[in-house]
């Protein structure tokens, strides 16, 4: 390979890295520091996310609330390629719906042993926990999407009906195998369906998460 080809390759790689770093920073706060080193770490994790996903159990039917979910109207949002933070890049929820989902988690936390505490995985905002050991769900203020730990049957139904996708790192690095991204609601009706999934997840704890 000639020195000119090496230089051209380095310039292309550098331009891609600058664009990707800016796009990653635009996703907002997550579990990694918003620094060049954080971007290097998440770039390595993108390779891990391409590996075959760990298997999940399929015990039991979906919960009643998830079984009654309608199919989410197309189109589905575009999920950013970065696994941390795991966000969408379009169809962000209106601010009032984001606030409403957060209040829904806070209302659920009024039922012991549920409580609100800082997210173990996001590290920057409050999440719904089962006691002090298991994080159930949190809302992302930047786009209105949510992460939630679902029973396997609920996860399958949520994905099949277009309401979310399993996290690309689920089952790795301490993330539960059914760690799921729920898409942001676009209107009040969709917010009600997302809230139903969150409520079903809270009611299912402690339950199978493998």
What is the residue-averaged pLDDT?
90
Q: What is the CA–CA distance across the termini?
A: 48 Å
Number of helices: 6
Oligomer: single chain
Number of discrete domains: 1
Estimated share of beta-strand residues: 5-15%
Alpha-carbon Rg, integer: 18 Å
- How much helicity do the residues have? 25-40%
Overall form: globular
Derived from helix and strand composition plus strand pairing, the structural class reads alpha+beta
What would you note in describing this structure?
This is Luciferase domain-containing protein. The chain is of the alpha+beta class. It has one domain (1-210). Helices cover 39% and strands 13% of the residues. It has helices at residues 3-25, 36-49, 64-67, 95-108, 152-160, 188-204, and strands spanning 114-118, 126-130, 134-139, 146-149, 164-166, 179-182. Strands 1-2-3-4-6-5 form a six-stranded antiparallel β-sheet, covered by helices on one side. A hairpin with a 3-residue loop joins strand 2 and strand 3. Helix 4 packs parallel to helix 6 (188-204). The longest helix has 23 residues, at 3-25. The radius of gyration is 18 Å and the shape is globular. The termini are far apart.
């Amino acid at each position: 390979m000639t020195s000119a080809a090496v230089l051209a390759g380095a310039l292309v790689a550098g331009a891609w890295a600058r664009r990707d770093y800016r796009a990653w920073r635009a996703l907002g706060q997550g579990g990694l520091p918003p620094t060049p080193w954080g971007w290097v770490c998440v770039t390595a994790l993108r390779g891990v996310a391409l590996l075959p996903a760990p298997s999940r159990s399929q015990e039991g039917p979906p919960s009643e609330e998830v079984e009654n979910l309608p199919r989410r109207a197309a189109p589905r949002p575009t999920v950013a390629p970065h696994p941390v933070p795991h966000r969408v890049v379009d169809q962000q929820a209106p601010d009032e719906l984001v606030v409403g989902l957060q209040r829904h988690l806070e209302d659920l936390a009024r039922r012991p042993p549920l409580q609100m505490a800082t997210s173990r995985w996001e590290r920057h905002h409050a999440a719904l926990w089962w006691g002090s050991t298991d994080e159930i769900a949190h809302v992302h203020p930047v786009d209105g999407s949510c992460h939630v730990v679902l029973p396997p049957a609920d996860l399958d139904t949520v994905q099949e009906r277009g309401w979310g996708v399993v996290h690309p790192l689920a089952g790795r690095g301490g993330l539960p195998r059914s760690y799921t991204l729920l898409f942001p609601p676009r209107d009040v009706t969709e917010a009600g369906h997302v809230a139903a999934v969150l409520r079903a997840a809270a009611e299912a704890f402690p339950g199978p998460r493998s």
